[in-house]
Amino acid sequence: MDFVQANGIVLHADWRPVAGRPALVFVNSLGTDFRIWDRVTAHLGRRFSILRFDERGHGLSGLGEPPYDLAVMAEDLRALLDHYGIEKAIVCGLSVGGMIAMTFAEAHPERVSGLILCDTAHRIGGAAFWAERIAIIERDGLEALGDPVMVRWFSEPFRTEKPAETAAWRTMVVRQDPRGYAGTCAALRDGDLEAAARGFRVPTLCVVGSVDGATPPDLVRSLADLIPNAEFAVIDGVGHIPCVEAPDVLGAHILRFTEESALV
User: pTM for this one?
Assistant: First the structure.
């Protein structure tokens, strides 16, 4: 692991280059750190040079100055690519990570060879939803969101059959810095990438769990419909975090998409 001074804060990152292999960057969802990608990267083996990082206000990365916007979070990614000398990458983002990926692609199209947009959309939720969530955090702390978030994240069979693992992911959420979590909620509240999505000209895969409680399939399909020639795929029986619940299936989608799109 590395600690990189980038875009005015310290970012916790993990860069694993493989000679001759394209860069694949993973961007996290709200309330998580880069460990959510562990099983997917294991499935991919050494087919890619892989960069993961904790977004500002999450994990071991610095807090910066919340509230955030998507532009500053995309510039964090740009600064990391500059630090590691990565000129161009396939960017895979989950939920708010997908919105960060799209914001980065809009600002720096020459640095993106492909997009993998997992359980995300051009706009997620409305202003009232995010205002209420921020108010809950400020009043009651992240502990109050732990159980509802697990319901939105994971399918009922996963939660029932893997209670210990579900409890561990809940712990990840409630131990985040509440200022960073609320600051990222503000970025989600204000983010609207419809116009950006219409302008993408790189191979794009939009993928979603069939029982996603945060970004349902119809919402993700509406994103795919905006992006010229985007592919759309559904992972059956899976919730909002397929990299945890079905990493082998998500990994297979990544491999197929990158091979068929001549990105590898």
Answer: 0.98
